[in-house]
Design brief:
Layout (H helix, E strand, L loop, with lengths): L14 E10 L2 E11 L4 E5 L6 H9 L6 E6 L2 E2 L10 E5 L10 H11 L4 H14 L15 H13 L5 E5 L7 H18 L2 E6 L2 H7 L2 E6 L2 E6 L1 H6 L4 H6 L4 E9 L2 E4 L2 E4 L11 E6 L15 E11 L3 E8 L5 E7 H7 L6 E5 L6 E4 L3
Parallel strand pairs: 3-8, 3-9, 6-7, 7-8
Antiparallel strand pairs: 1-2, 1-4, 4-5, 9-10, 11-12, 11-14, 12-13, 14-19, 15-16, 15-18, 16-17
Helix pairs in contact: 2-3, 2-4, 3-4
């Protein structure tokens, strides 16, 4: 594919998306999307089915050109270029390998189409198959390989022409959990080694959190939040993000003042003052693992709780807590060590703290 680009500096975005909208009949799939992606980044488009993440990826690739808006790659306007003139490689969920071609011929397909010499093709295919650990499978057919191996072949084929951009369209969703975990590590390591700018579409939050430099969380055709995995997890920008990424307690309350709320009889204080008026209905978000049970003296939001149901999850117990003297119930995750050391079991009464700096507060919809 064409790799010519205008001159850009290291500080400039490699991919610039401005006002991109895609309409299918009466349905708007994505609307006014603005996004900057920098060279060498691994970006995940994360969201539920129908949120627009695949539509945005297809607009970038030219497989479904946007209805309006502009896309630049490496300083070059690619908004209306055909697929053949864009600089990307793509890996699909379905592998999309040619079943009648050997593995080496699947990988070399783009090189042959580009008119490379036989020696160039042989050297490049050998290099790629070594890179993905399949050098000994070159003469097999796709049906003779496992799903994980077939996806490695797809990846090698996508990289054959050394594209500036790698697009991954839910590449791991057809694989079982163990293979997915192994392959996501291999893909991330390869991406770092090559330094190739990569965009992955996924609905799997674990994939996005473990593989990405930044995550673009999408809902109903719009971007809800852009941030590092740590930011998206710890500081969700909206109740949607809080709910979609990880597990979360959603506590309903009513503001008493700028830094506290009444929540079903329990008073919770926050680290940051809010601009909402007293009496405003709010939703307070707290991760189950942020409930602390050790060294609670001097902490904020300390409560006596009765331990309810405890579900053994392998490395922790998912535990329901009933705040004494209130109607407030919260979920917490207690490690095996905490449960053993403190003798926590259903029916016991313990003290816990809900740290003020771990609470995220949003105005409830009216």
């Amino acid at each position: 594919m064409d790799t010519s680009t205008s001159s850009i500096t290291a500080q400039d975005p490699y991919l610039v998306i401005r006002g991109v909208t895609k309409v299918f009949g009466a349905f708007t799939a994505i609307e006014n999307i603005d996004l900057d992606i920098y060279k060498g980044e691994f970006i995940s488009f994360l969201g539920p089915s129908g949120c627009g993440k695949t539509t945005l990826l297809r607009a970038i690739s030219g497989l479904d050109v946007q209805t309006s808006g502009r896309i630049q790659q490496g300083g070059r306007d690619i908004s209306n270029l055909p697929v053949s003139e864009r600089d990307f490689g793509i890996v699909f969920q379905s592998y999309a390998l040619f079943p009648n071609l050997k593995i080496k011929d699947n990988v070399s397909y783009g090189l042959v189409s580009a008119g490379k010499s036989r020696n160039e093709i042989t050297a490049r295919v050998d290099e790629l198959l070594n890179m993905v650990g399949l050098a000994d499978q070159a003469n097999k057919y796709p049906s003779q390989l496992s799903g994980g191996q077939q996806q490695r072949v797809s990846l090698a084929r996508a990289l054959a022409l050394s594209p500036g951009l790698l697009l991954l369209d839910e590449p791991l969703s057809a694989l079982d959990a163990r293979v997915r975990a192994r392959l996501r590590g291999e893909i991330r390591d390869l991406q770092k080694r090559l330094g190739i700018t990569t965009i992955m579409v996924t609905h799997d939050q674990e994939e996005a959190l473990t593989m990405s430099d930044r995550i673009v969380v999408m809902s109903k055709g719009h971007i809800e939040q852009i941030g590092t995995p740590d930011d998206v997890y710890r500081i969700p920008a909206s109740p949607f993000v809080a709910d979609f990424v990880g597990r979360m307690n959603f506590i309903k309350g009513q503001l008493r003042d700028a830094s506290s709320a009444d929540c079903l009889g329990a008073s919770l204080t926050f680290a940051n003052d809010l601009t909402y008026a007293p009496g405003t209905a709010v939703t307070i978000c707290l991760r189950p693992e942020d409930v602390t049970v050790r060294d609670t003296a001097g902490s904020s939001n300390v409560f006596d709780v009765d331990v309810g149901v405890m579900e053994f999850m392998g490395n922790h117990f998912a535990t329901t807590l009933h705040v004494v003297g209130t109607h407030l119930n919260i979920s917490s995750d207690f490690s095996m060590n905490v449960v053993r050391d403190l003798g926590i079991k259903p029916g016991t009464r313990i003290k816990v703290a809900l740290p003020a700096d771990r609470l995220r507060v949003f105005a409830s919809p009216s």
